[in-house]
Amino acid sequence: MIALLSDRISLLAASEQPSLDEQLADVAPLLARAGIPESVWAGVLKSCHATLIPKYATNYVTPRKITIIGGRGRMGKLFQEQLSLVGNNVSVLEHEDWKYADKLLNQAELVLVSVPIEHTVDVIKRAAKYLAPTTALCDLTSIKIQPTQAMLEHHSGPVMGLHPMFGPNIKSFFGQKMVVCPGRNDDSFQWFLDFIKSKGVELVVCTPEEHDQMMVIVQATQHFCRFSLGVFLTQAKIDIEQSLIMSTPNYRQEIDIVKRLFSQNPNLCVDIMLATEERCNAISFLADTYTHLAKLVAKKDRDALIKEFENTQSFFQEKIKNFLQPLNPTNQRDCNPQMHTKISI
C-alpha cells in the first residue's frame, strides 16, 4: 500500500490534477464492487493532494496586497498562510493594531474580515472608514445577511460575502466547499476566486438569504445534535474507548465528528447555534421533536413510533434521487444559476 501511494503521488505531481469529483467518478464502480465507501477513497485523495502543496505553492500570478482582519485567529491564520505561500503580501490587523488601520487597510487590494460572528458587523463598520473605493472587501463569517448588508451600506467599493464550509484544521483546501454571495463589483474578486478554485475548492454561489436559510439546517441544528450527544456521553460517563471496540462504522464516524466538534473553540460552536433567531427557533423545534419521540419511547408506544418512522421514510424516499446524484464534476454548484453572470467560476 505504501508503494502504491508513493506511485500515485508521483503521478499527481507529474500531471495536471483532475477535480476530486472526477477522480471519484473514475473509480466509483470499483469502490462499489469492493464495498469501500467513497468517503474513504476521498480521504486518500485529499491526503495525497496535501503532500503536493509545497511543490505548487509558488505556481501563481502577480502578488497582491491583502489585509486579514483577525488574521491571528485560526481561520484567519489558515488563509494568511495559504495566500502568503503563493507570494501575496499579506498583512494582519488585530484588535491592538487599529492605530495602524489607515496603512493596513487603505493600501490593500483585498480585505478579509475573519472575526467572531458577534463582532463582524461592528468590525466592518469600523474598517470601512479606512478603505479606498477600489479595495475589495469580504467576510468569512458563517452568517451572510447582516455582514453583506453592512459591507454594502458602509463601503462604496467591491463587496462579497464568503463562507468557508470547513474548519481551520484542514491540511488542504482540496475537496472543500466555499459559499460565495455576490455583492457588488464581482469582477474585482475574480483573481481570488480563481486562486481558491486552483486549490481544489468547490464554489457554491447563492444569495445571502439562501445561505442563511440553508445554514439553519446544515450548521446550527447539526451542531446542536452533536453538542447534545457529546454532553450526554459526558454526563452518562460513557467509556468511549470501550464503546469503539464493539462499534459499528456509523458509530465510529459519529464519535469522530463529535470529537472534532469538541476540539474547536467553544465560543465558535455556541455562536454558530445562537447566531440568528431562526437558528434558535429551529433548534427549539428539534428539541421538541426529541421530546415528543422520547415520550413515545417512554410509553413503549410501538405503533406510534412505527408510524413516525414510516412517515419519515416516505419523505426520504421522495428525495432519494437527489441524494444519489453524483457530485457535480464542474467544480461548481449554484443555488440559483441566474445569479452569477458577472463571476467566472
What does this entry look like structurally?
Helix 6 (117-128) links the parallel strand 3 (110-113) and strand 4 (136-139). The protein has 345 residues and is α/β, with parallel strands linked by helices. Helix content is 57%, strand content 11%. The protein has an eight-stranded mixed sheet with strand order 2-1-3-4-5-6-7-8, with helices on both faces. The chain is built from 14 helices and eight strands. The protein is globular and about 65 Å long. Helix 2 runs antiparallel to helix 3. The chain has helices at 2-14, 20-34, 38-56, 74-85, 101-106, 117-128, 145-154, 190-198, 208-235, 240-245, 249-261, 266-274, 277-298, 302-324, and strands at residues 65-69, 89-93, 110-113, 136-139, 159-164, 177-184, 202-205, 332-334.
Describe the protein's topology.
Blueprint: H1 2-14, H2 20-34, H3 38-56, E1 65-69, H4 74-85, E2 89-93, H5 101-106, E3 110-113, H6 117-128, E4 136-139, H7 145-154, E5 159-164, E6 177-184, H8 190-198, E7 202-205, H9 208-235, H10 240-245, H11 249-261, H12 266-274, H13 277-298, H14 302-324, E8 332-334
Parallel strand pairs: 1-2, 1-3, 3-4, 4-5, 6-7, 7-8
Antiparallel strand pairs: 5-6
Distance between the termini: 36 Å
Considering DSSP H and I runs of 4 or more, what fraction of the residues is helical? 55-70%
- Unreliable residue runs: 323-333, 336-341
Q: Strand order across the biggest sheet?
A: 2-1-3-4-5-6-7-8
What is the count of helical runs? Answer: 14
Q: What would you call the structural class?
A: alpha/beta
The average pLDDT value, as a whole number, equals: 86
- Helix-strand pattern: HHHEHEHEHEHEEHEHHHHHHE
For the biggest sheet, the summary is:
8 strands, mixed
Instruction: Estimate what percentage of residues fall within beta strands.
Output: 5-15%
Radius of gyration: 22 Å
The dominant shape is globular
> What is the β-strand count?
8
